[in-house]
């Protein structure tokens, strides 16, 4: 017998769904900031200078936890002395009184009583104020956590938290370089810098002598890039935090950089390892004044997710000084800008670089000349910068030699499609393995491929059920195999103009006379 006389509605969660394309313009930045803010302590001031009974209370450590601390001061009984105690975030103060029960506790006495409390999370600033303290209740406020804790991913929009990084280190200048190109989303991980304000990465001579202003006359070929071993270890450890970023910040970095350090091959290989794990690309800088031969030799160390950047760029620092900077942060900002303005399927090659004054090394560029230095570097999968209506990124290729995967735009197209489909397919996991569920998955993927084709991101794509792998045994084991393909768009790296002389045009013109 039916248990309802009427009409009911049941929502069915079946059918294909729209695939949400992953965010690609997210930059992973690792570096140092030895003078970064440690956060602020919560505090509260009571009393008034007019009565000379002012008291200032501070949390014992920076952080928002201090905002939960409170103070309660009450009048004591007759002849009771001033005392204090602390328990569970509350500082209790008994204000001393005379034989008639009139409060006699001064600000100095209260501060001394608070100082005598063991394991106290609330500290009173020492004072000699003689004013009488009246009963009060107060809550500490203004405490903030450390904005950039060590080895912790922090999501930053552009330069919104730049001041919290303080002076020194590499993070502040790197964020400025990125925001010169676009207001990108950056996952910042601060690494420990044991040098505390000293240069963590320096140029030295082959003999290990650090170059100073007096040593500027030394041959540039004598310079050698070196990273402090402790800082190198800290940076590599900090890169591991990128793997936690999606869980902590909800964002996964897709463009990885370590400006000022990636000239070191240990750092460069760690970037490559992180890129492989996160399905990202890594931009690796070359040493100052590295020769083409050195750059090409180094390129052979890296693979399918690394782009090697040869030049350093000239920029104006915040203090007005003009200096040469690693290019990787600007390249990452440029990549994010192209993603946002044109699309992740576009190459960043032949796109203008904003806010640079020049390059440390000028690579000869003659359009159409196969043997000019810029072209020779490109053919060896090394990126450079050319000057044509400003300065332009020049190079499409990653370090891998495989022609199918050498273009960064193709590599990233595959990453976007694979991750976007994989994230959406999670909706269908653990549903009954039947025709309805499989049709929904296939419909979802094929609809996404049609959408990307209409956006002109790919030439086309489709999904189908693999008949050979989907056996009775695999289906019984709860496993299903779905194949799909797509046609990525390679950048137009070469245009060949074929020209010939045709004298027939002259004959045709004279024939009209």
Fold and architecture overview:
This protein has about 525 residues and is an alpha/beta fold. It has 3 domains: about 45-140; about 155-200 and about 225-405, Rossmann fold, CATH 3.40.50.11780; about 410-490. Helices cover about 25% and strands about 20% of the residues. It contains 12 helices and 22 strands. A hairpin with an 8-residue loop joins strand 2 (about 45) and strand 3. The longest helix is centred in the last third of the chain and has 20 residues, at about 435-455. The protein is extended and about 125 Å long. Mean pLDDT is about 90; it is low at about 205-225.
Relative strand content: 15-25%
**CATH level-two architecture of the largest domain:** 3-Layer(aba) Sandwich
Helix content bin: 10-25%
- Main CATH class of the largest domain: Alpha Beta
Q: Give the strand tally.
A: 22
Overall outline: extended
Kindly report the average pLDDT value.
90
Structural class: alpha/beta
- For the termini, the CA-CA separation is 101 Å
Question: What count of structural domains?
Answer: 3
Biggest β-sheet: strands ordered side by side in the sheet: 9-10-1-13-14-15-19-20
- Cα-based radius of gyration, to the nearest Å: 32 Å
Biggest β-sheet strands, sense, barrel: 8 strands, mixed
In CATH terms, what is the fold-level topology of the largest domain?
Rossmann fold
- Oligomerization status of the protein chains: single chain
Q: Tally the helices.
A: 12
**Unreliable runs:** 203-223
């Amino acid at each position: 017998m039916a248990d309802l006389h009427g009409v009911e509605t049941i929502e069915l969660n079946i059918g294909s769904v729209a695939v949400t394309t992953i965010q690609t313009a997210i930059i992973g930045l690792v570096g140092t900031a030895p003078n970064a803010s440690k956060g602020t302590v919560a505090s509260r001031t009571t009393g008034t200078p007019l009565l000379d009974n002012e008291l200032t209370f501070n949390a014992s450590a920076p952080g928002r936890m201090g905002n939960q601390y409170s103070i309660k001061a009450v009048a004591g009984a007759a002849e009771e002395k001033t005392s204090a105690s602390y328990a569970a975030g509350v500082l209790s103060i008994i204000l001393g009184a005379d034989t008639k029960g009139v409060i006699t506790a001064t600000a100095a006495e209260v501060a001394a009583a608070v100082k005598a409390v063991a394991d106290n999370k609330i500290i009173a600033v020492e004072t000699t104020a003689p004013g009488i303290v009246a009963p009060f209740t107060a809550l500490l406020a203004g405490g903030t956590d450390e904005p950039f804790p060590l080895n912790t991913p922090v999501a930053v929009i552009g330069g919104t938290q730049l001041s919290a990084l303080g002076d020194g280190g590499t993070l502040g200048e790197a964020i400025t370089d990125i925001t010169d190109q676009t207001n990108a989303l950056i996952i910042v991980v601060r690494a420990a810098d044991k040098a505390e304000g000293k240069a963590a990465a320096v140029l030295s001579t082959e003999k290990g002598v650090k170059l100073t202003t007096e040593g500027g006359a030394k041959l540039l070929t004598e310079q050698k890039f070196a990273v402090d071993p402790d800082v190198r270890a800290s940076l590599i450890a900090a890169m591991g935090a990128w793997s936690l970023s999606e869980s902590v910040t909800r964002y996964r970095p897709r463009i990885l950089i370590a400006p000022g350090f990636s000239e070191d091959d240990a750092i460069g290989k760690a970037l490559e390892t992180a890129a492989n794990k996160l399905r990202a690309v890594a931009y690796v800088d070359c040493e100052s004044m590295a020769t083409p031969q050195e750059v090409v030799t180094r390129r052979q160390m890296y693979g399918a997710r690394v782009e090697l950047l040869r030049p350093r760029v000239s920029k104006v620092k915040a203090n007005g000084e003009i200096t040469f900077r690693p290019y990787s942060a600007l390249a990452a900002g440029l990549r994010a800008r192209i993603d946002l303005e044109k699309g992740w399927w576009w190459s960043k090659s032949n796109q203008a670089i904003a806010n640079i004054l020049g390059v440390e090394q000028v690579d000869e560029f003659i359009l159409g000349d196969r043997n000019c230095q810029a072209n020779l570097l490109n053919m060896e999968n090394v990126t450079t910068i050319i000057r044509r209506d400003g300065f332009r990124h020049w190079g499409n290729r990653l370090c891998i030699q495989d022609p199918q995967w050498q273009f960064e735009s193709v590599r990233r197209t595959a990453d976007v499609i694979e991750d976007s489909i994989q994230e959406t397919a999670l909706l269908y996991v653990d549903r009954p393995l039947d025709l309805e569920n499989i049709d929904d998955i296939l419909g979802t993927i094929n609809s996404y491929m049609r959408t990307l084709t209409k956006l002109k991101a790919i030439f086309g794509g489709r999904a189908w059920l693999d008949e050979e792998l989907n056996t009775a045994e695999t289906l019984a084991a709860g496993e299903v195999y779905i194949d799909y393909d797509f046609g990525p768009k390679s950048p137009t790296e070469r245009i060949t103009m074929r020209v010939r002389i045709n004298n027939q045009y002259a004959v045709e013109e004279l024939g009209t006379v």
